[in-house]
């Protein structure tokens, strides 16, 4: 597939996609989801080598892979369970910025689950916001435009689970209630 075809299918510009390919830009979760759909591949396969995929994956805290550069403004993401084979959700550690004014609202197919591990955060939606503290969580349709910011002195640490709608309404674990 050419860069031009992939860019068109994913709804991004060819020049932006070229920057991603050369490591000069890091795509957002929404753009990564669009690229995975355009490539007809699971989202997590964009972050892991196919030879390393496995059915049971343990990711130690010091083994998380940074998916965004340390000094880049905006949210920082760390990959979790990148070597897991077929997944219905993709987990990340999310470290949102304090200033979300310059960050655009994002939306994408699927659902998201946020769990505050450390610090305080605010989920910003067009019509409302939700403040979250340690141990709080929120689950929402990712088609709702959203962004997250840290509150307080320290940058919050959140577990983010992204689920794509590609599988439809099938239960991911039919043996569980």
Question: Can you tag this structure with a few keywords?
Answer:
177 residues, alpha+beta, three-stranded antiparallel β-sheet, 3 helices
Write the layout of secondary structure elements.
Layout: H1 3-10, H2 14-21, H3 29-38, E1 65-66, E2 76-79, E3 89-95, E4 111-118, E5 120-124, E6 129-132, E7 137-141, E8 147-151, E9 157-163
Antiparallel strand pairs: 1-2, 2-3, 3-9, 4-7, 4-9, 5-6, 5-8
Helix pairs in contact: 1-2, 1-3
GO molecular function: DNA binding
Pfam family, one: HTH_3
Keywords: DNA-binding
Radius of gyration: 16 Å
Order of helices and strands: HHHEEEEEEEEE
Main sheet properties: 6 strands, antiparallel
The level of helicity is: 10-25%
* Low-confidence blocks of residues: 168-177
Termini Cα gap: 41 Å
By secondary-structure content and strand pairing, the structural class works out as alpha+beta
Question: In percent, how much strand structure appears in the residues?
Answer: 25-35%
Shape descriptor: globular
How many beta-strand segments? 9
Roughly what is the average pLDDT, rounded to an integer? 80
Query: What is the overall number of helices?
Result: 3
Strand order of the largest sheet: 1-2-3-9-4-7
Protein name: DNA-binding protein
Domain HTH cro/C1-type: 1-46
GO molecular function, one term: DNA binding
Keywords: DNA-binding
Give a quick summary of the entry:
By secondary structure, the chain is α+β, with helices and mostly antiparallel strands. It is built from 3 helices and 9 strands; from the N terminus they run αααβββββββββ.
Folded structure, characterized:
With 177 residues, the protein is of the alpha+beta class. The chain is built from three helices and nine strands; from the N terminus they run αααβββββββββ. A six-stranded antiparallel beta sheet has the order 1-2-3-9-4-7, with no helix packed on it. A three-stranded antiparallel beta sheet has the order 6-5-8, with no helix packed on it. A hairpin with a 4-residue loop joins strand 5 (120-124) and strand 6 (129-132).
